[in-house]
Amino acid sequence: MKMEANVPVTRRISPFLLAVIMISLVLSLAIIYEGINVYTSGNDGSLYLLMGATILAISTYLLFQTRRQMLRLNIGIQPINTTVECQKCGFKNVREFQRGDYVFKQTEDQCPKCNEKTMAIGSIFREVKEKEKAREAGYS
Amino acid sequence: MLTIQQISQLLPGQDNILSWILQIVFLGIFIAFMFYGQRFQMLIWMRDIENSLFKLKIMRDEGRKVAITAINEIGKPQVDPTAQVDRFLEYFALPPVDLDPAGIIWRLEHLLDVADARFKADVRLMAPQADETQINNLENTLEVASILNIIYKIIRHLYLLGKKTQSLYILMQVQMILPLFMKEAEAHSSGLKAFQLGQPIGDGAGALVAAKLMRDYEKTKVEKDIVVAKVPIEGRTAYVLKAEGPGANVGKPGEAIKQIIEQNEGKISLAIVIDAAGKYEGEKTGEVAEGLGVAIGGTEVDKYKVEETALKYKVPVNAIAIKEDIGDAISPMRKEIFDAVDSVIERIKRLIRERTKEGDFVIIAGVGNSIGIGQ
Asked: What CATH number does the domain containing A116 carry?
């Protein structure tokens, strides 16, 4: 379980930038229109269409960028496991970490197998998902 | 004088008004990029830095909040600790003069001792109900919150400086170094909870190895928060030492090793220092590597002491490193690091068999933060 913080960010948008984006949008539509006109008149309008599409894509991207955004922060609390082991018979029990746990702490728990109070914490760890491990490993 | 018709003829393309408007616009964009290209690039960089700065601010605020909550929960103070926490976050320690480097280690050690005593005293005032282990954990929580505060302030300072002076080079450097700062901040952020709850962290890998070796033997407390046990290994006697746990503690392993060597009049056949070490990208977390030298990080005061004593008595010092990322070092211990402990113990035994004779004395020092690790 990874906790994520979604934080709304309010940004002051420059009117100049907004005007530039709007002009680019109108311009891109005009170029596409012109390209279609050229095509229908029997000439090659592919350059116009390419330019129009590119400007349209850039200005749409910029327009979305200026919108109020949600920042995602991956400051995660990952599940931590505690392994409790019986010192006598070696029985192991894995549970969620509880405040006060530490490695080699003798617990008051009774071993469910040999019924003796010989349980101690053997390990406390977090497990990383395979996907994350693969990302870490990179190309190898 | 040129007419519009003549100008339009200079431009390639279709012979209509829209066509040449487009050509002029593109020419305009080309010229604008020629003169203001760097400015556009600067705006993009500034936007990147702003986004990261916002994330850093959230992490900084979260760190402060976690510290205040932990103090209220554990320490049960009579007064609101917010003002004291804010004061703590702004603490600074000035490094000693290095113009004349003679004796700088001792001056640095004194400074660190004073800072540590001062931090502990302040935490005791903030959290009067906390016991010694909790005091150590709270101190580390506050230190992490303080680091997050410092990272945020440095990046904000550079960003504002670059913006004020319109310096492309300041902004470029900030933008380039930013991923490393973000990685560090995210690592500290994820470590906050570990310190608050007292969970073992990756940095404690060395301490865990020592804890496993000394588990069933009598321990004595020596120099500043270090515990030592005499453990028979492979027919030799090993002085196994680590910082006292389970509170957040690194102790002074250097001073403890120095004392043990001096007490034995230098008759130590081998010293093995085990510590967590930064891994290269592409290496696996929990990989174990062997080497020579004193594997003690931090301020290097401890490293210096061990090197001096080892040189004086000609004690060979070996190092075993457990590889991990900066993020893994400060966050709760990963299973891979935990699993590496047994392989480290096997290597220690092999080193002792290969490098010493039966009846010899050796030192095994598990270096690192003992948070969440008993002995």
From this structure: 2.20.28
Confidence at A3, pLDDT banded by 50, 70, 90: very low
Instruction: Chain B: give the shortest CA distance to residue A57, in Å.
Output: 16
Q: Which domain holds residue A58?
A: 5-73
Structural domains in chain B, sorted by start? 44-197 (no CATH), 202-366 (3.40.50.1470)
Over chain B (375 residues), what is each successive 10-residue block's mean pLDDT? 54 62 80 86 89 92 93 90 92 90 92 92 92 91 94 96 93 93 90 90 95 93 90 95 92 94 94 94 92 89 94 96 91 93 95 94 96 91
**Distance of alpha carbon B268 from alpha carbon B261, whole angstroms:** 6
Contact A9 B54 (CB under 8 A): yes
User: What is the chain A residue with the closest CA to B196?
Assistant: A99
The minimum CA-CA distance between A113 and chain B, rounded to whole Å, is 23
Asked if the Cβ–Cβ distance from A128 to B22 is below 8 Å, we say no
Residues of B in contact with A97 (CB under 8 A): 197, 199
Q: Facing residues of B276 across strands?
A: B322
- 3-state DSSP of chain A: CCCCEEEEECCCCCHHHHHHHHHHHHHHHHHHHHHHHHHHCCCCCHHHHHHHHHHHHHHHHHHHHHCCEEEEECCCCCCEEEEEEECCCCCEEEEECCCCCCECCECCCCCCCCCCCCEEEEEEEECCCHHHHHHHHCCC
In a domain, A137, yes or no: no
Q: Does A84 lie in the same domain as A65?
A: no
Within this chain, do residues A120 and A68 fall inside the same structural domain, yes or no?
no
Distance from the Cα of B118 to chain A's closest Cα (Å) equals 26
> Is the minimum CB–CB distance between B19 and chain A shorter than 8 Å?
yes
Please state the domain count of chain A. 2
Assess B331–A contact: CB distance below 8 Å, yes or no. yes
pLDDT of residue A89: 87
The ipTM of this complex is 0.82
The answer to whether the CB atoms of A103 and B198 lie below 8 A apart is no
Nearest CA in chain A to B60: A75
Asked whether residue A56 is domain-assigned, the answer is yes
Which residues in chain B are contacts of A31 at CB distance < 8 A?
Answer: 22
